[in-house]
């Protein structure tokens, strides 16, 4: 499966579980996206948001026991779309971001592709 018309876009990925991060990075590449940067903790993610250009971000909601909100706030300020990845369902999203798209972990390649495409189209 390849992304329709949106391949080549860059993705910032924040996920604390190394194996999951590697799996999602592989899925993104299979869909035709480029991983611009990856972070495994909040401080690294905050630094990379400011230092990296990307088209969309995928954010794990709970990163090493900390809520991703400070990172989401910075990305929102940059005007980039972002998607949450969570094992907690939409009720696990930070309250101010419950209107944002979310992928329920574990997710499949097709769901990832469709969610990214929708988020990029709507901004």
From TrEMBL:
Keyword tRNA-binding in annotation: no
Keyword set, alphabetical order: DNA-binding, Phosphoprotein, Two-component regulatory system
Gene Ontology molecular functions: phosphorelay response regulator activity; transcription cis-regulatory region binding
InterPro entries noted in UniProt: CheY-like_superfamily, Sig_transdc_resp-reg_receiver, WalR-like
SMART domains: REC
GO-annotated biological processes: regulation of DNA-templated transcription
Domain Response regulatory: 10-120
Pfam families tied to this protein: Response_reg (PF00072)
GO cellular component: cytosol; protein-DNA complex
Modified residues (4-aspartylphosphate): 60
Superkingdom per UniProt: Bacteria
Gene3D superfamilies: 3.40.50.2300
Entry protein name: Response regulator
Upper lineage: Bacteria, Pseudomonadati, Pseudomonadota, Alphaproteobacteria, Hyphomicrobiales
């Amino acid at each position: 499966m390849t992304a329709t018309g949106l391949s080549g876009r860059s993705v910032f990925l924040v996920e604390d579980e190394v194996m999951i991060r590697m799996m999602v990075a592989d899925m993104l590449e299979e869909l035709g996206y480029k991983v611009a940067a990856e972070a495994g903790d909040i401080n690294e993610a905050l630094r990379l948001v400011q230092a990296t250009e990307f088209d969309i971000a995928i954010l794990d909601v709970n990163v090493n026991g900390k809520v991703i909100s400070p990172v989401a706030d910075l990305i929102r300020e940059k005007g980039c779309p972002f998607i949450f990845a969570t094992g907690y369902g939409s009720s696990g999203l930070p309250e101010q971001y419950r209107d944002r798209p979310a992928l329920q972990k574990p997710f499949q390649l097709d769901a990832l592709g469709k969610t990214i495409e929708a988020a990029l189209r709507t901004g």
